[in-house]
Design a protein that fits this description.
Distance between the termini: 42 Å
Shape: globular
Structural class: alpha+beta
Bound molecules: alpha-D-galactopyranose
CATH class of one domain: Mainly Beta
Number of strands: 36
């Protein structure tokens, strides 16, 4: 709810829906604060566009330069356009020659999309130093912030704290979304938990550099701003032109993190993912990377495909190493031709083999990159983003192609288009394995060029699914997801780490897009050994896959893995369609979630313990999200975890199913043996 009486619009109410007959004017009245001694005579309000120059002392949402000097900007609300599900505020500063549009759209229950644009109405160029996509005055109850920070193989670590005085700033400079950073935020009450409490979720739908500012002032006003981060001089608005800031997706719930999660994931399914309603079931992948790495050729891949098919795999993905002279990660990016020494008859015999085994075929690419040691670079050394005359520092031995140049984009499009036109390829894993430096003032334009390239490719090959990967989860955001079907959540397939990482992504993403693979043991990233039972159960709660060589597993492990792949196929419509709720188990070594089908008829839960419990009796597993008045048959789905099964009394009853009321399951719950590290149970629930 907004107030429009002041110079700029103000936010009066943001929270759970109000009663239809609520008196909005009364709420505005109750929210108004009086002026105190140490303020401007016209004191700052909870403005949607806080700016410098009228006594607001925080970070301004808009900063412009003209002729290299800061411009004074003082816009006024000129027009408010209300539509059934949207409101647009048109502000203008005629003296400065700028117009700003703030558009708030209610897109699905509990979710708004906020879009901001700036037009240069004057007759001289204007440089944008900063334009917040959203400047959000927080409701008084939102005194806590949960933010994310990650790194390679440890994405989306969260941290919660009080929003005190002063500002917390997160700025990214790597030219990509990053491993979990300031583009995801939660603002909430102190008491907000998994199932209770008010909470706001914010996400900037942008795949490049971004910033977010969380600040509080001496008047206990708290604010969040989010936007794309621009290098000074990068965006110069010529007279008559417009700049569109990337959208912010804002979710709000009065039912804690689960409520927010389901509002956001519902929105992603309805409005972000491409044609989500038409998606076929999410096929089980086998990806060659942790099975073969660069040690591949046609015969080895055919053997791997045979072993994959035998355990129930449905999509066979050839990862890095199939093209040009790419026998290690120092070379050949940009040479998107099939290596004749690995595939003497091309890719088709392998694809035919894979298809004959009942699987479809996927391929890894890293289209935005070029290796200095590549045919492409030898012919076009100027095609990478670089500072003229300066050195070209690499990361993973590679440079970034300048896709803002049409000849470069056209070349890469032609290479990918040829691959997809000439071979039966169902899926691309689209990787991006380095930060963008130097940015050479192209950080923003490069992101738009990547979107254009993906759009062009999808238009030419609409049936091809794309996964967004960037050394794992380095480029996961709603903007990428509007052109992709899956994200690679992390290079870390260690199931214990994945429980943590997926808890971060799962706050904002539905399970069906979270690529979640069974890795080898010992795990190549952490060195940890985990039982196949644990690895496979954890991998089911996402878009399941295998990133290991079945030939390197014992017969028992293969059997266990195949059994879980079969279970995933049986339950994926439940996992990928309805709602998903975490359990409130306290501590950080017990994880659990329940996925409930959209019609409420079936549900699948996992309860997992990562380390050795202090108490023999683990907390009961209380199952949120079910219908309190319904009755359910609950069974523990086999195979059961080896270490824990001997502590389970009444095994036959659990195997066959026991009936409970939904209220009992939510309030009291199940006493399961969860004492030992690396044990997990699957709980199958059917409405009676
Ligand atoms: C990145 C990806 C991995 C794998 C390798 C291949 O690190 O995240 O999954 O594809 O590249 O080089």
């Amino acid at each position: 709810m907004f107030a429009c009486a002041a110079r700029v619009p103000e936010l009066v109410y943001l929270g759970t829906p109000l009663a239809a007959d609520e008196d909005l004017a009364a709420i505005a009245l109750a929210s108004a604060r009086g002026r105190h001694e140490s303020q401007a005579d016209d004191p700052p309000t909870p403005s949607l566009l806080p700016l410098d120059g009228r006594g607001f002392l925080g970070t301004p949402a808009l900063e412009l330069l003209a002729d290299g000097a800061a411009m004074a900007i003082d816009p006024v609300l000129r027009d408010t356009r209300a539509e059934p599900d949207a409101i647009t505020f048109a502000l203008a500063d005629e003296r400065a020659g700028i117009a700003i549009n703030l558009r708030w759209r209610a897109v699905s229950p509990g979710v708004l999309v906020i879009e901001t644009s700036l037009r240069n109405m004057g007759d001289a160029p204007v440089t944008i130093a900063r334009l917040a996509s959203l400047a959000l005055p927080l409701p008084d109850w939102a005194t806590y912030i949960t933010r994310y920070a990650g790194r390679w193989s440890a994405e989306m670590r969260s941290e919660t704290g009080v929003i005190g005085r002063g500002a917390w700033l997160n700025e990214s400079r790597g030219g990509r979304t990053g491993f979990g950073g300031g583009n995801w935020l939660l603002a909430h009450e102190a008491e907000t938990g998994v199932t209770r409490g008010q909470i706001i979720g914010l996400h900037l739908g942008w795949s490049g550099d971004h910033y977010s500012i969380v600040e509080g002032d001496a008047d206990a006003q708290r604010r969040i701003q989010m936007g794309c981060r621009l290098d000074i001089g990068e965006i110069v608005l010529e007279p008559g032109t417009r700049f569109d800031a990337p959208p912010v997706h804002l979710g709000v719930s009065g039912e804690g993190r689960n409520g927010l999660r389901n509002a956001m994931t519902d929105h992603v399914r309805r409005h972000v993912l491409p044609d989500r309603a038409d998606w076929p079931a999410r096929r089980v992948h086998l990806n060659s990377w942790e099975a073969l790495s660069f040690d591949m050729d046609e015969a080895k891949l055919k053997r791997l495909a045979d072993d994959a098919a035998a355990i129930g795999i449905e999509r066979f993905v050839v990862d890095d190493g199939w093209f040009g002279g790419r026998r290690d990660d120092r070379t050949s990016l940009g040479d998107w031709t099939i290596s004749p020494d690995l595939f003497p008859a091309g890719l088709d015999p392998l694809i035919a083999h894979v298809e004959a085994l009942g699987m479809d075929f996927g391929l890894w690419v890293e289209p935005e990159m070029v290796s200095p040691d590549s045919d492409l670079y030898r012919v076009h050394p100027d095609w990478c983003i670089h500072a003229p005359g300066a050195e070209r520092p690499t990361q993973r031995g590679q440079l970034v192609l300048d896709l803002t140049r049409s000849e470069v984009s056209d070349h890469i499009f032609a290479a990918l288009d040829a691959l997809l036109s000439n071979h039966r390829i169902a899926y691309l894993k689209w990787d991006h394995n380095r930060d963008l430096f130097p940015r050479a003032m192209k950080g923003h334009a490069q992101v738009l060029a990547v979107y254009a390239l993906i759009d062009r490719l999808r238009a030419a090959h609409p049936a091809v699914e794309i996964e967004s990967c960037a050394s794992g989860g380095g480029r996961i955001d709603y903007a990428m997801l509007s052109g992709c079907h899956r994200v690679w959540a992390s290079d870390n397939n260690d199931a214990i780490e994945r429980l943590r990482i997926n808890a971060g992504w799962g706050q904002f993403l539905p399970l069906e897009v979270i690529g979640n693979h069974v890795g080898p043991s010992p795990n190549p990233v952490t060195g940890r050994r985990l039982s196949m039972d644990f690895r496979a159960k954890v991998a089911m709660f996402g878009h399941m896959g295998v990133e290991a060589d079945p030939a390197a597993m014992s017969a028992d492990e293969r059997e266990t893995l195949a059994a879980h792949i079969a279970l995933y196929k049986e339950w994926r419509d439940v996992l990928h369609s309805g709602s998903c709720h975490w359990f409130d188990l306290g501590g950080d070594s017990l994880f659990g979630q329940i996925a409930i089908a959209a019609d409420g008829g079936r549900a699948l839960a996992i309860a997992a313990r990562t380390d050795f419990a202090d108490d023999f009796n683990a907390p009961r597993i209380r199952l949120p999200g079910l219908d309190a008045d319904a009755r359910y048959a609950v069974r523990l789905i086999e195979p059961w975890p080896d270490k824990a099964r001997r502590y389970l009394p009444n095994g036959t009853r659990w195997r066959n199913g026991i009936a409970f009321g939904g209220a009992y399951l939510a309030n009291d719950g199940l006493a399961l043996p969860l004492t030992h590290p690396e044990t997990a149970w699957l709980i199958g629930i059917e409405r009676l």
